[in-house]
Amino acid sequence: MIRVLRAVPLRGFQAGTAFLMGYRYSACRGLAAGQPIPETHPEVLGAEELLPGLPVAEFVERRRQLASLLPQGAAVVLPPAAQAYVTGIIPYPYRQDADFLYLTGITQPSFAVIHKQQGPGDGPAADPGDHRFVLFVPAPNKERERWDGVPLREGVARDVFGADDVYTVTEMPSVMRQLLEGAAGIFYDADAYGGRLHREVPYLRDALTAGTVRPLRPYLHAMRWIKSPREAQLMRESADLAARSIRKCMSLTHSTNSEHFLAATFEYECKVNGAQRVAYPPVVAGGADACTIHYLRNDKMLEEGKLVLMDAGCEFWGYASDVTRTWPVGGRFSGPQCEVYDAVLEVHRQCVDACRAGRTLRQIHALSVQLISQAIARLGLLGEADPQAIAAGRYRPLYCHSIGHWLGMDTHDTSSIPHDRPLQPGTVMAIEPGLYVPDEPAFGRYAGIGVRIEDVVAVQPGGGPPEVMSRHVPTDPEEIEAIVRGGG
């Protein structure tokens, strides 16, 4: 999605102006932000936005909500994602930790402390969400900046991202000690940042040893599990990008192409239309390789008469999508392929419809197991679908994974939220039934057929039908055949 360029006030920063395709935009030559902000990227961000559609006020409210859940005087320690390297000094593109991004809107390395304020005499504050937001940013280093560019600076950290206090990372051990010494509880996930932060901040290490640190993740996951309307819009755009990119891959499918070609096409289509990255390595599995759930080789030629399964998603400004479709390389499902596909499609339809407030993902998985077991019996693959057979897991060789998972800023999002928690409006999940018939003679004409259908599904208010955010790539077999044969 390409956003319309907009006029953005410059908040007093030194800035230049330029013209691009007839639009005025701000070059902001003197502005050290380290990432897009409205003054430097008005074609993407509106006034006060830190991510498209997400104003700084939403991030402030998230921090307030978190503070309101914690004891008076508590301190939250937030490290960023650690930089990963290909080899030596060659970095992978940086991807921010989802919890850090959720609370700050900052996409580059920095550290944060959120300190819940107390009232007079250490009593309760009048506002339970009252807090101070402290950022630690890289110290100025002209030699490093010559190679890597100018990162986030103090003025921008205050004026754009809303920090109350800003220090350099070199000051962090001493300043963080001052912030944490009087805290009525420290909330910090010791495995974040590769487990390195508490090794660099002695007071935090000592607090961990003393057992006075409590995990932060359960609080943040409970917040992130329910998407705000603005978050839902970003997820909608991410899912739509992935869906339309898979549709494009369908239209380019023929036996002279390879799995790698389709994987590259998907990534190109997502990125050229606004995604920052793929959400995970795409699965493009032709023929019997579709029965390998996380097939990542993507190195074979497509075969006429076989199916190809694509499981792929993208990240759009911090929000992930996860979509799977299965289609015939030649543009027509064979009889056995169609039987397996129709069986999975019916499970998909019923499980998507079950994604309503009050139900649980565990209940929806149980529904999928019942329906898949009935389909397996109907196709004559593994005997009867009686309750004893289902309880014994007879279906598992042909359906070995869960019906789905939470989706949001991570592909497998909010892992601390159990699957038996009742769904609520704003919950988003991936629903992905599949049927994978081993390529063995015992399975006759169905041998080697693997089908999975996956969509991004959002629970709606009032018990209404769920929203399928990835609906712009069809699941109907006749529509799929038409796209593959027609090339569009």
From TrEMBL:
It comes from Tetraselmis sp. GSL018. Residues 54-195 form the Aminopeptidase P N-terminal domain. GO terms for molecular function: manganese ion binding; metalloaminopeptidase activity. GO terms for biological process: proteolysis. It comes from the Eukaryota. Its cofactor is Mn(2+). Keywords: Aminopeptidase, Hydrolase, Manganese, Metal-binding, Protease. This is Xaa-Pro aminopeptidase. GO terms for cellular component: mitochondrion. Belongs to the peptidase M24B family. It holds the Pfam family Peptidase_M24.
